[in-house]
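pasting for the record
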Amino acid sequence: MFGIADYGAFVAAIVLFLLIPGPGNLALITSTSKGGIRGGLAATMGMIAGDQVLMWAAVAGVATLLATYPAAFNAVQWLGAAYLAWLGFKMVTAKPGAQPILNIEPRHYFKQAGLITLLNPKAIVFYMAFFPLFVDPARHQGMLTFGVMAATIAALTFAYGLIVVLLTHRLAERMRANPRISRTLEKLAGVFLVGFGIKLAISK
């Protein structure tokens, strides 16, 4: 589909990554707690804007590899699969620790959420490893392929952000009272990441 190797797996992977606890999710929750639904939605749009910058920067590098160094592109695919498995392993074996503290100021939810996304080293590495895994070198359609991937991520991020904002607005106190929920989700996502990375490596 549009030169994407497995669109269904691509969508499933995006949803999984959105569920992983991190600065982006914390920014959504904090913004909603301080600014209500409008603050949370503004933070969601900021995250989408930051993601788009990182995605298209990654696209520039991936497109270059596709055009000039096919062997290097295949190597990046292998490294991407290994990175996902490693990330999942780290999540499964991580010990409980303090959550990062984000200083979200009122009326600046969009800007601050965007900066949090842009300045997150893990997000930068993630996008460089993520895109090559789902690009079909034989059937990719250049910018159309990357555009569909970018639009899919933006749409799913907005839908996810809306759900998080609405849930946080209604259940913020209950979620804060039970921190084990986020730890359980992190462990579960880690297991899936390990399996997903191994599956992609075997399929190459």
